[in-house]
Amino acid sequence: LAPFEDGLEFFSQQLSILFQSDEVRASSRQTRSRLLALNLFVYLEFTVWLEMGPVNEVCDLIRREDFLPWLPVEMKSDAIKIYVDEAGHAEMSNALIDSVEEHLGIRKVRNIRPAFLATLDRLVQREEPEFHPLVKLFFVIISETLITGTLSKLPRDETVQQAVRALAADHASDEGRHHAYFRTLFEYVWPRLPRHLRRKMGILLPEMILAFLQPDS
């Protein structure tokens, strides 16, 4: 990790919903800096939960011969590469959390499960067990093809610590490739599903999209 520099923040004010509040913007520099650090923790924790949870669970499904066995061999092999990428993102995010906690002497909020996981649980529970893998597959396709403003804008914000910007830039580079993979996967899988499965999954897609676009409550 690049060393932390005095005068730089740990997250971008432009990307923090907290800074839409006049009260927050008018608070002391110390308060604003601590809020941005806590915002960083939320962002990094989201990454760990997503990558180590649904994304890598689905990558493991894809690489298996008995799941969508008609997928090209190359696509199944690439799922293993993405699994490794995502585990790396989670590890680097966790390491940065530890470093920032030690540097600032503040702690992240522990054991807060992101709301998108509750949405996934609810969607899975609504379906018969035989459809659970497909629900998870399309949930991850949605998550990996939604490129967030954070990934594109955070690396360019020069008010933010270089270690944070570098991690976001590395993540963005990988996610660009993952976006292309999962977009192609969708284009390959969707036409090959029976009509009743396309209807079943299609009904769920809007809720999956909203799971990532709505504020985490």
Shape: elongated
Which whole number gives the mean pLDDT?
A: 93
The whole-angstrom Rg is 19 Å
**How many helix segments?**
8
Largest sheet: none
**Uncertain spans:** none
Helix coverage percent: 55-70%
**Beta-strand residue percentage:** under 5%
Order of helices and strands: HHHHHHHH
| Termini Cα gap | 31 Å
Sheet/helix structural class: mainly alpha
The overall strand count is 0
Question: In terms of topology, how is this protein built?
Answer:
Elements: H1 22-25, H2 29-63, H3 73-104, H4 115-125, H5 132-145, H6 149-153, H7 162-189, H8 195-213
Describe the protein in words.
The protein has 217 residues and is mainly α. 68% of the residues lie in helices and 0% in strands. The protein contains 8 helices and no strands. It has helices at 22-25, 29-63, 73-104, 115-125, 132-145, 149-153, 162-189, 195-213. Helix 2 (29-63) packs antiparallel against helix 3 (73-104), helix 4 runs antiparallel to helix 8 and helix 5 (132-145) packs across helix 7. It is elongated.
